Amino acid sequence: MAVVFEYLGDFYLLNNNPLIRILLIGNNVSRVNLIVEMLNDQDKFKLIIAKTLAESLNYFAENEFDIIIFDLQLPHEDGLESFSILYEKYPDKPIITLTTDFDEHIGQQTVEHGAEDYLVHGEFNDKILIRTIKNTITRSSPRFKSKYYNVKLLKEYEQGLSEIIEFLPDATFVIDGFSRVIAWNRAIEEMSGVKADEMLGKGNYAYAVPFFNKRKPVLIDLVLNYDKEVEKDYDFIRRDGNALLAEVNVYLMGDYHILGIKAVPLYDNNYNITGAIESIRDITEAKKAQEKITKALEEKNILLKEIHHRVKNNLQIISSLLSLQEVYVQENAKALSVLKESRNRVLSMATIHEMLYQSEDISGINFSNYIERLTTTLFHSYHNTNIPKINVDQIYLNIDTSIPLGLIISELVSNSLKYAFPDDKTGDISVYLHSHDEEYELVISDDGIGFPENLDFRNVESTLGLKLINSLVNQLDGSIELDSSHGTKYTIRFKELKYLERI
């Protein structure tokens, strides 16, 4: 008598989910127990076991189970003949056959004679078993079967598809809605070493073996049924519309290769998904070339950082020398002022090179951070304990723009610190930098005594600082305006300088 395992309580429904009732026909104790263990912890299966083909034919009505798993290695039975008898008895029930790697061809033959799929002992785990059962149930539904009912038309369709992909340059294969290979082109024959006649018609993830050395779901299977577990086998998987793109490292034909893979759904004339297509490209050499370029760029960045580091160190040495000279001119206020201004100019440039050395991206300076550091240094240099008002957008500027702009800020803030508040008066110094499309606006102002009315700031021959400011604005191809109506306010407009190739 057949044995019934009822682990799951309600026969037809559990937790509002339909219960899949499985008739397992098998006599090998270890194989039967393995399948029982694989399904034991699941909440969607009821397992009925028949030890012989006769039991399965005589003791069960067709409405007692939903799917059959049939072990072809029953003792004293011819596997294919027994399957034919079973199929004739239950023509409307989906059947999955079990075979060994030695007799895998019999499993393939059962699929050709009506089985939905076959599994090879020792080459599937609980996830593959459960996925195969669920997919088989789905494919056996009347709605799904209607897409594939006309076998003649389907064969003609598959033949036409094979002819289309045969001469594609990329390794390409196609599976149908039953996860069976229906096309395997010349390029994938060369890549995998497996001929088309050895692969066509095979299911049970046979197409994964040449690449992963075992049967397992691969990218093409995710088009039909997505499974996050499969993601672990790939370097990455991303979706681009209805396509899945991935990269993977595999050992293929005696060597390691990096493969770029794309999988897309296969549609019929009514836009129903009838399978999937996967194309594979060996991108090993391209990856190696990309790695060489990346390494060269990294080495270049390291070299440039080292250059910025050395320039910064040299500028700091110059600043230190100027600071030492100040000791010898303490009684000469004019000379002391000149040395201090020169030292601040050097520090404004040194700060830029220091930030480039410390930055991950040496193509630009974070100018909001730079302005805060520079103004803090200048206030400290003039022993001013006030806090500057800074309002700066998050702006990154290249070094060609940053050096002259930093010197301009240094000069104008220094002028405000020196001249805006005589006789120990106090006030505010503000720095604003904002972007307007491709143009930038720098505003440096104070609410001090203002700029002398009798002086033209554009034509001051005696003041190095103002001559330097006008020269630097011209270097930026910018404009400068002065408003002395309330204190002193400089407005400078400019665009980021384009990099000029050095010879």
Describe the structure in your own words.
By secondary structure, the chain is α+β, with helices and mostly antiparallel strands. The chain has four domains: 3-140, Rossmann fold; 151-282, Beta-Lactamase, CATH 3.30.450; 284-362; 364-503, 2-Layer Sandwich (Heat Shock Protein 90), CATH 3.30.565. The chain is built from 16 helices and 21 strands. The chain has helices at 29-40, 53-58, 79-89, 104-112, 126-139, 142-145, 151-165, 186-192, 196-199, 209-212, 219-224, 284-326, 333-358, 367-381, 399-419, 464-475, and strands at 3-5, 13-14, 17-18, 20-25, 45-50, 67-71, 95-99, 117-120, 171-176, 181-184, 236-240, 243-252, 255-267, 273-282, 365-366, 389-392, 396-397, 429-436, 439-446, 479-483, 488-495. The strands form five sheets. The chain has a six-stranded mixed β-sheet, sandwiched between helices. The protein has a six-stranded antiparallel β-sheet with strand order 10-9-14-13-12-11. Strands 16-18-19-21-20 form a five-stranded mixed β-sheet, covered by helices on one side. Helix 4 links the parallel strand 7 and strand 8. Helix 15 (399-419) packs antiparallel against helix 16. The longest helix has 43 residues, at 284-326. It is rod-shaped and about 115 Å long. Residues 1-17 and 143-152 have low confidence and may be disordered.
Please provide a brief summary of the model.
This protein is α+β, with helices and mostly antiparallel strands and 503 residues long.
From the spread of the alpha carbons, the general shape counts as rod-shaped
> Structural class, judged by helices and strands?
alpha+beta
Spatial order of strands in the largest sheet: 1-5-4-6-7-8
Number of domains: 4
